[in-house]
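The freezer alarm interrupted the setup, so I double-checked each line after restarting. Inputs confirmed:
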Amino acid sequence: MAVSSRTQRGSKGETKPLPIPEGLDDQTLLKWYRQMLLIRRFELEAARAYGLGKIGGFLHLYIGQEATGVGAIAAIREDDYVVSAYRDHGHALLKGIDPKVAMAELYGKVTGCCRGKGGSMHFFDYERRFLGGYAIVGGQIPIATGVGLKIKYTGGHEVVLCFFGEGAINQGAFHESMNLAELWKLPVVYICENNRYAMGTPLERASSLFDLSQKACAYNMARAVANGMDVFDVYSKVSDAVRRAREESLPTLIEARTYRFRGHSMSDPAHYRTKEELEEQMKNDPLVTFPALLKKMGILTDELDRQLQEEVKAEIQEAVDFAEQSPEPDLEELYRDVYVEG
Amino acid sequence: MAQISYREALNQAMTEEMERDERVFLMGEEVGFYQGAYKVSQGMLQRFGEKRVIDTPIAELGFVGVGVGAALAGLRPIVEVMTWNFAILAADQIVNHAAKIRYMFGGQAKVPIVIRGPGGAAHQLAATHSQSLEAWWAHVPGLKVVMPSTPYDAKGLLKSAIRDDNPVIFIEAELLYGMKGEVPEEEYLIPLGVADVKREGEDVTVIAHSKMVHVALRAAAELAEEGISVEVIDPRTIRPLDTETLFRSVRKTNRVVIVEEGWPFAGVGAEFAYRIQRECFDDLDAPVERVTGADVPMPYNKNLERAAIPDVERVKKAVKRVLYL
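Predicted 3D structure, all chains:
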């Protein structure tokens, strides 16, 4: 995707060109903003419900990383596949899982996307080609690679986006998958969301290499680094990789440098980082910077912003109400779907 | 009826199923150009080409996981592990993923993968290459575990495993690859979860699977000369387990010996014995006996190795014990 020198509109006296990829209309940018709002609001409500004891298990929030998910999934088609890790809410919503069904899953209700059997870390929607959140660090990377093999085997032109954190990058599963994907020329885009901390361990204490995209060099694979807090940069880099995957059946490793504003999970107060560091990073909050930019560009007005926020708030409230009111699974559900019968 | 080897029977099963269904393919270490580490896939590369007979690097976690993903997305992979000892490296993909995907995702998906390769002891391969790990896989809900003992069973069970929509662990016996047996020309399937009576008898039931079936049959033949009539039951699939056939035999003979090559502690025989005592308590005339592999890592030394694996003598002694002879 070429980066145009499209100039800002509605700005006062500023002429600096913005690195906005070509072909994006205002409606698309507004849609992206709404998607970010939706993920943020979904997770804030999920955190609240967790605090009230309505949601069990672990709850790993994506707050702060929304621009990465939105930019990446904006770069693919509906028939493309997404495979994610345990921090999967954002990716699932972007792939079209209804917030009602997602929230119901967090509540463990039978109306959830996995009938209440997967929970936060295991969202899934076969029809929408969201092939799962996986909760073993790195475990989903070979699986996504296998989906890539299926596409190539059947002569399809879909692609797979495989998300994982930088904590997964030291796993053998990552390295074995990189090797196979390049060796067999599979249409997989590996997106390492480097949010700086693998649970409580900063990258510097877990990896001998800090420029994670360089890991691709060992496998002769194309690579890119994206600013994960900048939806345009992610969109642009992922679009390049998606084109390479779709047209040439070649994989790419993208390191998206992002940051999570919350702890690893709800139980983590994140004492391993300073308040100053967090405050500094929060200046890049995509939910602040992106609408500010859209306003500068004249695409978003304060009024429209309020309207969008109200809409999203109502949509998430509806999701919470749906989850609250949905029935628990029958106890017969316990033994259902262990095996395919017949 | 044609006499073919166990490995040829497996080869025929894969070949027939790949001809029948374009989605079936074979992947693993040395399955292609090398013609199979144990020659089970001999000639398949020439027949199906590199697209469907795929050589992999020695990286089990990666290629087993790729198989899981390909199955999830709609293909029907047969993934060969060079031995089941090496599949431990892929245990995450097998236990955490293949076995769980359907349940965890609320029944939306299926993972029709067959993971197959040799297991058990061969000749002096020592501790890391001589393990019978079927209890590990059978422990996991979501997996099926199949262990054929004859060429006929190997072919019919593998064809069923390939057509099954669930992940199937298919453990072959390294020492049986060369064994010959009758296999019909016409197509047949053996359903998973149906045990086979390998020898009819009246006095004692011996339950054995995989190559232990042959140890049990030899013991039965020798005991017959002493006037003891032994029935040999081969469950063929460890999970699902055909308990009805086991119970029927126990109700007839009232005495049971279970033979397995694996370790005794939490072995599959422990599960068989539990089920038999629960359902056939009043039919038993003696406690259930087990003959198992020694509770040690396999030694290299020939004599020590021999002492660690169930043999005909030990089975005969166990049969006499349950007869109070």
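Quick read of the result. The CA atoms of residues 61 and 151 of chain A lie 31 Å apart.
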